[in-house]
Amino acid sequence: MKKNYLLILFAFFLVFCSKDSLDDDNPESEEAVLEACFEMSQETILTGEILQITSCSKGATEFLYDFGNGDASTKENPVITYSEEGTYAISLTVSNEKGKTSSYDRDITVVSNEGFYIYPDIDEGFSSLPLELGVNPNTGNRYYIELLEDEIGSGGSKFYYRELAEDLSSEGQYLADKPYNCNSAFVNFFPSGKQNFVFPRTLNSLYGTQEITYDMAWAFLNGIQSAKKHSYGVLEAEGNFLYYGTEKPADFHRAAIEIRNTNGDAFEVNATDVPEHENATIGDMIAIAGGFVAFGGVFQANTTPPYISAYYPILMYYDTSYTMTSYVVFEESAITGVINSSDDLNGSFHLEKLSNGNLVMYAMGELWVTDATGNTLFTQYFEDTSNNQALVNLGANFIISTKDYLKKYDSTGSLIKELKYGGQYLPEILQDGDSLFFVAGYEEGEYIKTFYGSTDLDLNLISLEE
Q1: Cα 144–chain centre separation
Q2: Which of 215, 267, 270, 350 could lock onto 322 through a cystine, CB 3.0 to 4.6 A?
């Protein structure tokens, strides 16, 4: 019995000593694994460019970043932008549940982005708002339509056409005076040589259109102002041109497609009633197999404030005869209570079909991604973003503009990358091979000024001054 007792005591001693030895060398003990660590998406960034920081820390339960510019974050994987160039020390302090801490730091170099943009000369006291960007099919040159507003004198507000030379210089061609409010525009270059410029004209309760037509030598041909219709854009189909928007033949606005020939003469209007909705409009329209799909809205029009209420985005499907075959109303929209006047409907509408068949819609700061039949996959509302914004289709993914940012998404609406580019008004983004070009408006005190910019397809800035 005594012998067995000694064996048991000896075994206990071995186990106890082994446990102590393992504890001393155990790399998994809580204090031993506490280690601060982070990785950066880039070692050098531009002012305004987003830096993604990803923690690789061990054993941490709390995080405190100091970005070296007066900003801090307690997020595990924060993002940061720098507004001034220089070298900044980013430090991370982590702690665990026992209050132990560990620190780590790295430097980030920030380079000014001023050499990447071009700022055209704009007279003092004037605001310059870009309303449309495209390529002139007759010259191959990029152009934009500008609303130039005299903010301090008696020059008024006027529309100009600016065609960009290879060195991005331009001269303004006067188009028309601005009669009412305007936040978008488009031009249709007819094969006959006519250049038809279309501008919204809205007030709180007025929803109309102004058209100005010139020949190729800029001789004035005609001008039309209508309070009965509003045109948002044009689509070429089967040798004709489809002007889409809304028309008010009587008491209510109807989603309308006006068909014009190659000379610009309108010969047919297809107006659509949406069941259970008094008013409807088409903001953008694309061709699909077997017909067309249009993106717009339905709403209630009132004679007293709010002049527009119960606004809901809508997808409308048409056959080749421009007859609506089905529709989807997005009643969960975040902007339903935001839209309260015709001015709020005055802006850019975008509809694109991605390579996997999904549809992307963007207007009035609200983004939608649906499948081909309109089932919602993703939606997001960007508050404080103006109605003057862009969407460009890259096939498998897409890019939009919001206030201050360009954002790249995959085909389901997952954010891939964003760039704080500094603009607040951006009607269109043009793709040219592996690069993107844009003309943006930015706020400078009480004025809006214009700059030209370019990025690659991953939103890395490309210098235009080289």
Answers
A1: 18
A2: 270
Are 336 and 235 found together in one domain?
yes
DSSP letter for each residue of 348-400: -EEEEE-TTS-EEEEETTEEEEE-TT--EEEEEE-TT--S---EEE-SSEEEE
Provide the mean pLDDT of the chain: 91
**Residue 195 one-letter amino acid:** Q
- How far, in Å, CA of 49 to CA of 104, rounded? 23
- HSE-up (13 A, CA, CB side) for residue 416: 16
Q: Say if residue 142 is in the same domain as residue 85.
A: no
Q: What value does the mean pLDDT take over residues 268-275?
A: 94
2, part of any domain: no
Distance CA 349, CA 284 (A): 6
For 59-90, what is each residue's pLDDT tens digit? 999 999 999 999 999 999 999 989 899 999 99
Residues 6+ apart with CB under 8 A from 139: 163
Q: Which of 81, 111, 141 is the last residue of a domain?
A: 111
Dump pLDDT digits (tens) for 171-220. Answer: 999 999 998 999 999 999 999 999 999 999 999 999 999 999 999 999 99
Range of the domain at 320: 114-456
The single-letter code of the amino acid at 188 is N
Residue 47: closest CA among 112, 143, 139, 2: 112
420/364 Cα distance (integer angstroms): 20
With b for 16 or more beta-carbon neighbours within 10 A and e for fewer, the 56-89 pattern comes to ebebbeebbbbbbbeeebeebebebbbeeeeebe
In whole angstroms, what is the distance from residue 363 CA to residue 349 CA? 5
Task: Count structural domains, the chain.
Answer: 2
Q: What is the pTM of this model?
A: 0.84
**Residue carrying the six token digits 């190659």:** 262
Long-range contacts of 260-263 (CB under 8 A, 24+ apart): 262/190, 262/191, 262/192, 263/190, 263/192, 263/194
Q: Are residues 69 and 158 in the same domain?
A: no
107 with 251, same domain: the answer is no
Q: Domain boundary at 85, 111, 137, which? A: 111
User: DSSP secondary structure string, 52-71?
Assistant: EEEE--BS-SEEEEE-SSS-
- Cα–Cα distance measured from residue 242 to residue 348, given in angstroms and rounded to the nearest whole number: 17
| Pair 440, 427: CB distance under 8 Å | no
305 and 408 belong to one structural domain: yes
